[in-house]
Automatic annotation (TrEMBL):
<dbReference type="InterPro" id="IPR033199">
    <property type="entry name" value="DDAH-like"/>
</dbReference>
<dbReference type="GO" id="GO:0000052">
    <property type="term" value="P:citrulline metabolic process"/>
</dbReference>
<dbReference type="GO" id="GO:0016403">
    <property type="term" value="F:dimethylargininase activity"/>
</dbReference>
<dbReference type="GO" id="GO:0016597">
    <property type="term" value="F:amino acid binding"/>
</dbReference>
<dbReference type="GO" id="GO:0006525">
    <property type="term" value="P:arginine metabolic process"/>
</dbReference>
<dbReference type="GO" id="GO:0045429">
    <property type="term" value="P:positive regulation of nitric oxide biosynthetic process"/>
</dbReference>
<keyword id="KW-0378">Hydrolase</keyword>
<comment type="similarity">
    <text>Belongs to the DDAH family.</text>
</comment>
<protein>
    <submittedName>
        <fullName>Dimethylargininase</fullName>
    </submittedName>
</protein>
Amino acid sequence: MPPSLKFEEKKAKSKVDFQLATRQYQELTETLTEAGIEVIELTTTDNEPPVQSLFVDDLAVAVNGTALLTRPKSNNKKTNVISKTNEFVTVLNSLAWQVVEAPMQIHGRPVILEGSDVVFTEREIFVGIRKNGTNTEGALVVAKTFADYSVIPIPIAGTKPLKAHISVPTNEILAVGRDKESQNILKCIERDATFFFYFYLFITSKEMQANH
């Protein structure tokens, strides 16, 4: 966690409980460590990009030893984001991961790919498609990079990323929000998924935010 956060919009500042986020981060780190998982923490500074710095999964989509560097719609040209990405790549290389960078364009169209729109279930990959987030070209990059898995695009009407609506607490279990948008996304998953035996855990928006 960075020592402080800077917000591009004043409204966003009122929506983020920094003390709560810090406590949740500490609890998550402790839980993972107690479970025998090595936790690697990236360095933080006062000049971190706003909010996005809290979500490492927006830097890359990681699946079975391959990390696909994302191409978010915003902040992708800022020096501090590039520096953070370089540090992340250095860590991945030290772990012998294969690192793939998402192209800027496919078929002449720009690629937008945000890690918070990608959910890997161990069976398949869901990619949220939304107006201000990942686009169809971004989903195509995911499909090309992880060709061993079915990649299912999920249209999202709202502005929140896919992981704000669904997550994977453990194998074959999907945590799904109780709100209307999350339930619409669930209908798409039930219709288009290639694996038909998921168990669903329905949780509140507050619980989903903590899980994300």
